[in-house]
Amino acid sequence: MIRRILSVFRRDTKSSLRDSMVLMSILSPLLLALVMRAFIPSVGETTINFVVTADLGESLVEALRAYGRVEVVKDLAAVEARVRGWDDAAGIVRSGDGFEIILEGNESEETAVLPGLVLADILGPQRVGITERDLGRATSPLRPMFSSLLPIAGMLIGGLVIGLNVVEEKETNVASALGTTPLGRIEYVGGHSLLAIAVAIVIALVSLPVMGTWPVHVGQVAVITVAGTVLAVVAGLYIGGVANNQIEAVGVLKMIAIPFMTVPFLVFVVPAQWHAALYWIPTYWMAMAFRTTFEPGGSWAEVLRLVGIGLAVSLVFLGATWNMIRRRLVLRG
Amino acid sequence: MGMLRRFVSLTAKDMRMIVRSYYMAAVLVIAALLIVSIRFLIPADVDTKPAVVVWDNTGTGMVRQWMEAHAGAEGGTLIVVGDAAAYDAALAVPGNRIGIRADGAAALQQFELTFQGHESTRTRRLLAATMQQYAAAIGGGDSGSGSGGGLPSFATRVLEPDRPVQRPPFDQAVVPLAILMESCMVGIFLAAALLYSEKEDRTLRAYRTSPASVAEYLVARCVAMGLLALISAVPITLLTVGLRANWPVLLPLVFLASMVVTAIVMVMANLFNSIGEFMYPAMAMITVLTLPGVAYFMPSYSPVWVRALPSYPLVFALREAYFPTGNHALLTGSVGQLLLTLALVFPLAVLTFRRQLVVRDV
Q1: Is the minimum CB–CB distance between A218 and chain B shorter than 8 Å?
Q2: Backbone angles phi, psi at A234, to 5 degrees
């Protein structure tokens, strides 16, 4: 049995390496991890945008740079054109002996109010002493959200590898040929799953350091990822079982991708009292487990509880649809 | 006439393939999921500002009163505490919280600002500047300015004072983003899947012997994806925002955006040999094109590389189409950028496609 499973695995690996599928499936999330790595601090750096003319004076322009991004443009018309741009930007120009703030009128409250406070802070006296204290939580609140997205995307990609290989076998009649061999359905599914599991684990463990989410609790991440590979297998069986050709596979993927790609965001955006509406989605529990391990103080007990429920919900899904998958994954001789 | 007939025939063929596969069903199921999520799951009121924990230790209570009167009006959660233990406990709760402790014997003398640790230097300076001006308004410090009674003001000119400002509830505000991510990008996987399927079936070889041109084939594919985008966008819009959207602007905008995305896909897809290879760069492409969604909720976030993405002006134009303010420049700017992208990408798509057909003989 093991030999037959490994045989399917070897065939999958060869086929996937031939058209660079495995390579692309691993490289693309890593590329995305690099984009995220650049993206997260840039969001954290966001304050307000000032647009000024050069006659404001170098010292004032430099002082403004301490509070926000400053663009120096050539004249008043250019300031107004920039203020009317798609993003929020406040213009500051000289007007008589003082200054004038130029707004479009639809800015966020910060862009409307802060330029005046900043100017007053630069030009006026300091009224009171101000000291700072740090709680030492240097990790951006965005990081746990994006960090959980990549390993969960790795599970989806693992599923996709299974699904596309199964569809390819259907299209090329390899599935029919396999039907004439002693290969059983469980061995067939097991063989296809090995590559998907490997892909999902590699993506999770490599993308996190590339993204800068390191150090992490490696043990907890490994447990969540390995448990999450069950989801990859379920997703792969749905794609491979339902679809008979590539177009159908893409259609099924489109539906399956929704819980994988949106739930990691929803667990952070949706208020806690509404989370019950997400309990039926297996990826919710995995996203919550990743969130727990990436946030300070994530305990083993909580991670195991979430992973356990996630596994149970995944198996309920698989059990409820197993008959349909079994019918569609028939190896015909 | 013959060209038009060929074009209609090609578009109809693509639409038939979409309907026969699970793709049309997938598009409608996802539209239904989005409608349910927007109407029943996503809250109308989401506060993204950090919670502020205030401890007025001056003995006068003036800072607390001032913060309650002003900070509350600016949104965000204000947590007022009365002693050091409660202050530390409130800040110990994980989350996006900032602490403000006011000290002084008879009057305000000092603020201690407590940050989580991830805030940028600029963010910290902005809060410090704000607290300095609050102190001036409250009448703190020894500058002898007395109780200022208000924040400093500079002459302010508003360029569009009569233009209405739309601040839709959060659940409705996500609709333009949903349309960007789903309807406008509906063709990313499908257009490529159709291409690879035709390559495998050798349909493209047969196509070479027909009088139809590569451009006609690509335009038909783009139009089919544009129609599919409308099939996705119309029910989502009708059942979330309703009829108040600017429909004559919205529909052509979604159609054009979908065509542009499809043209980009047709260039990209020719660089890969199979849907298996193409799928992963396509996922990365979707994620990158979605990043301007951050700018949508944080309009100050506008790095040059995000502004260069065609989806950046598009997301603001979609907002204008859904919640009209009369800002026509926003729409014309976005349509202009989409047309420019199409003008650049479409010839490239024709070129790469012709290379596939003729040089590589697919």
Answers
A1: no
A2: -60, -45
Give the pLDDT confidence score for residue A276 in this predicted structure.
Answer: 85
Q: Which own/partner pairs from B268-272 qualify as long-range (CB within 8 Å, at least 24 positions apart)? A: B268/B192, B269/B191, B269/B192, B269/B195, B269/B196, B270/B195, B270/B349, B270/B352, B270/B353, B270/B355, B270/B356, B271/B352, B272/A24
Q: Is B97 helix (H, G, I), strand (E, B) or coil?
A: strand
pLDDT over 60 (residue A251) = yes
Q: Are residues A85 and A16 in the same domain?
A: no
Domain span at A20: 2-40+138-328
Which of B57, B63, B122, B268 to mutate to probe the A interface, most A CBs <10 Å? B122
Task: Decide if B130 and A127 are in contact by the 8 Å CB cutoff.
Answer: no
Say which residue, A6 or A20, is predicted with more confidence: A6
Query: What is the reported pLDDT for B251?
Result: 96
**Paired tokens of B14:** 């693509």
Shared domain check, A269 and A162: yes
B 215-274 residues inside an 8 A Cβ radius of A: 272-274
Any A CB within 8 A of B130 CB: yes
* Secondary structure element (H or E) that encloses residue B98, with its range: strand B97-103
- Entry pTM: 0.82
Identify any residues that bridge with A94 across adjacent strands, giving them in sequence order: A99
CB of A88 within 8 Å of any CB in chain B? yes
Question: What domains appear along chain B, each with residue ranges and CATH number?
Answer: 2-43+169-359 (no CATH), 51-138 (3.40.190)
* A42 contact B CB<8A: yes
- Of A31-35, A139-143, B264-268, the range with the lowest mean pLDDT is A139-143
Interface contact B193-A246, CB threshold 8 A: yes
Consecutive sets of 10 residues in chain B, 362 residues long: mean pLDDT of each? 83 87 86 91 76 89 84 71 92 85 86 91 92 82 47 84 85 93 91 86 76 87 96 97 93 96 92 82 84 86 85 93 90 92 94 77 58
- Beta-sheet pairing, A90-95 with A49-53: parallel
Say if residue A320 is exposed, middle or buried (CB neighbours under 10 Å; 0-12, 13-18, 19+). Answer: exposed
Same domain as A196, residue A173: yes
DSSP code at position B357: I
- Same domain (yes/no): A161, A187: yes
Q: What is the pLDDT of residue B150?
A: 60
| Residues of A (247-266) whose Cβ lies below 8 Å from B | 247-255, 258, 266
Q: Which residues of B touch A125 (CB under 8 A)?
A: 143
**A72 and A185 inside one domain:** no
Do A164 and A313 reside in the same domain of the chain?
Answer: yes
In a domain? residue A267:
yes
Number of folded domains in chain A? Answer: 2
Same domain, A215 and A316: yes
Contact yes or no for B156 and A120 at CB 8 A: no
Q: Which of A44, A121, A258 is opposite residue B129, by nearest beta carbon?
A: A121
Among candidate residues A123, A152, A178, the one where a domain is terminated: A123
Reported ipTM: 0.80
- Residue A323: inside a domain: yes
**What is the CATH classification number for the domain harbouring A94?**
3.40.190
